[in-house]
Amino acid sequence: MPLGTLDRTPPPFFRQGPSARTKLVFFSALALLLMVADSRFKVVEPLRTALAMALSPAQRVMAVPLEAWAGGGDYLGGLHRALAGEREARAKLAAQSERALRTEQLAAENARLRALLELRPAIAVRSQPAEVLYEAADPYSRKVFIDRGTAQGVALGSPVVNEAGVLGQVTHAYALTAEVTLLTDKDAAIPVLNLRTQQRGAAFGAGAAPGGMELRFTSANADVQVGDLLHTSGLDGVYPPGLPVARVVNVQRRVESGFARVALAPVAHPDGVRHVLVLQPLSAQLPPRPAAQAEPTRAGRQAKPARRGASAP
What we know:
Blueprint: H1 20-41, H2 45-117, E1 127-135, E2 143-146, E3 159-161, E4 166-173, E5 178-182, E6 189-194, E7 200-205, E8 213-219, E9 229-232, E10 244-253, E11 259-266, E12 275-279, H3 290-311
Antiparallel strand pairs: 1-2, 1-12, 2-5, 3-4, 3-12, 4-5, 6-7, 6-9, 7-8, 8-11, 9-10, 10-11
């Protein structure tokens, strides 16, 4: 065989292409170019969207067993919670029914005793709903404005309450709005009654102090404990008796002082309150005081001698 006919090219195993460094630089530059193009020009976004749409059925099929397992667990857990809630609701309903029955019996007994003792019937407190519009602009006071005024029958001194207890008192009444001073205001005061000891006192607003209220003029040896609930006493002729006011949160008895420092927390938190009830003051339904009845008589007695002196000439 002639030597010129032999293939002198090396086999593919010995062929050498681009070096590894060249490939690294090329593909790195290509990756960088693709990232820049995708972030700036969204070149790969259609491809990514199409790939996501193509793989979406497969993802859903693969997620079916996991969703079925989680859904079954949630169903069983929800069923268990529903059964427990039903049992708790039935127990509360039974307790409320028993309490309502006792309340009806006590109300009937109270009515019979009042009739037996010829006492005046209990005063019915009239109320009207209102909505809180905004807070007062004064940062040093705790006052809010409601959307009821003198045109709706709101009078000065009207108590303002919500479902938890007393919130405050109307201090300024306008035609269509009214200003309510909250119990935590530094100028607010309300007579209270300790339900545990039946001891009367006066609660005042403490502003930024802990709790927001304090029970002043309480002797150092008074029977006041943390957790005592204070209600309105009803002796001021403004607030109806029995409305929750505050709870004792701290009692400090100092040796050098004859009074104890009692911090209170209002039962009805004024923050976040939207809807309230405006009650009619008890003074509008109570009979006039004896002093007010005696003043016209005294004035008439003083006027009679003047008439005699004038007719003498």
